[in-house]
Amino acid sequence: MFALSCSDRPVPEEGAGDGMSGEPCLVDSDCVDGAVCFGEVCVQQGLFRVSLSWSAFSDFDLHVRTPSGSEISFQFPNNDDGYLDVDDCVLGECSDDGLHIENINFNSQALSGTYEVWVQNFDGVNGGDFNLEVAGAVEQSWTGSLPATELAISQIYTFDYDGG
Description:
seven-stranded mixed sheet, 14 strands
């Protein structure tokens, strides 16, 4: 897992950084093989990924529950072949209002079935809008908003992966 503090993220320049998860990017080719540029940050694609972006000055956290009932989040960074590779604004260490990113990617052993996705406002410092994107073998997207309430959670969004 790569923890990325908002204030530590440099302004991206094409070809800058080493292209690993959490590094700045402008285009997919700025990232290493297997990674893509999402919100100007390299994230692992895997078979499919679930990515969160938001701009509020608050620590939003991405959560995914797999078909087996296992959870992937900052507390459980890997389960059922899913991995949290970018965790932004770790433990409330978020010092700007720029775009923030979190990403969970699933590899070849991802389970077939229904996945649940939700966002939590960990510190509740501010509320704000967020975007969720599932990309790769599954394509889905949602938008939502969280109140300025510590540990507030969004509605639960679902998608199906058929294993194909």
